[in-house]
Specification:
Strand order of the largest sheet: 3-2-1-4-5
Radius of gyration: 24 Å
Shape: elongated
Strand content: 5-15%
Structural class: alpha/beta
Helix content: 55-70%
Number of strands: 5
Order of helices and strands: HHHHHHHHEHEHEHEE
Number of helices: 11
Distance between the termini: 55 Å
Length: about 300
């Protein structure tokens, strides 16, 4: 096979890695939460690891296309595909059939589908065996530039949430007056003012509410979030007419996110919005009625 044809196949593999990295950047919240959900890495380390994986894919994609070192690029790609394939096989053995985030949320793929995708990529890569590298001057400089540019791109476009915890914390809104009024009028049960509580204001249709529940549930299992009783308040129109259906949806919500929520209540949207100032989710860590900490999705820690 002629060199130009081999180079076309090498470009195709590089483009796939570029698409994969861009898809992960766009949906990085889901990707970092996916990594965190394995309960191996802490939250901050998961933020870092997610971005390093994306930066590696981005750099590898460019490296394949620029064709600086054809043999090195081939070996790195094979090693990466092999490592990811082993990971996918472990997921299959464990019975994990969820989206493995290989293409973020752009293309949802279960481990079996992603494993087949890896086999196809490897087959395309084989068609570019013995491709000759381009004769480019200052190759060491180009290698460094590609790596630095990939890392910088990821961290600049989507910096980790823990870099801005204080800033996010200042923007987390909570109307204490409206909260107390709803407790006094029994819209919110008075028991939440007693002892240690984690109070969550969620909407069942809010993506970030679901991710925050998932994040808190994982953190509690790792022992890095207060173990206090969780009480959730869910905004719902026409509470009386939809309560049975909504109750089942709420149960499913907490089962899917693996958040050990002991109690949940439905409240009218007007009350929900007044307390949260229209921002969701809102998480309150309380002790005897005093708010110890308040979080939105970004600054949960």
């Amino acid at each position: 096979m002629r060199q130009p044809v081999k180079y076309i196949f090498r470009i195709l593999v590089g483009v796939i890695f570029l698409i994969s990295s861009i898809a992960k950047i766009v949906s990085i919240d889901s990707f970092e939460l996916y990594i965190f959900s394995f309960e191996i890495l802490g939250l901050s380390v998961s933020f870092l690891f997610a971005r390093l994986v994306i930066a590696f894919e981005l750099a590898l994609g460019v490296y394949l296309i620029v064709n600086l070192d054809a043999k090195v690029a081939y070996a790195l790609t094979c090693l990466f595909l092999a490592g990811m394939s082993v990971f996918l096989i472990v997921l299959i053995i464990m019975g994990n059939n969820g989206n493995c985030n290989c293409f973020g949320e752009l293309i949802a793929m279960n481990p079996w589908q992603s494993l087949i995708k890896n086999v196809i990529i490897f087959a395309i890569l084989l068609l570019s065996v013995k491709l000759q590298s381009f004769n480019i001057r200052y190759k060491p400089l180009w290698r460094v530039m590609i790596i630095v540019a990939a890392i910088a791109t990821v961290f600049i476009l989507r910096p980790p949430d823990n870099w801005y915890y204080e800033s996010y914390g200042k923007s987390t809104t909570f109307n204490r007056e409206a909260f107390d009024q709803r407790v006094e009028s029994n819209v919110l049960p008075s028991e939440i003012m007693e002892g240690d509580k984690v109070i969550c204001f969620y909407s069942l249709s809010c993506e970030f509410c679901k991710m925050s529940a998932h994040k808190i549930g994982t953190m509690r299992r790792l022992g890095t979030f207060p173990q206090s009783e969780i009480v959730a308040f869910i905004g719902l129109n026409d509470i009386s007419g939809r309560k049975e259906e909504a109750t089942q949806k709420a149960i499913t919500f907490f089962e899917e996110t693996k958040l050990d929520c002991e109690k949940f209540y439905f409240i009218e949207p007007k009350d929900f919005l007044r307390i949260t100032n229209g921002s969701m989710p809102l998480i309150l860590v309380m002790k005897d009625g005093e708010v110890i900490a308040k979080y939105s999705y970004r600054d949960i820690r």
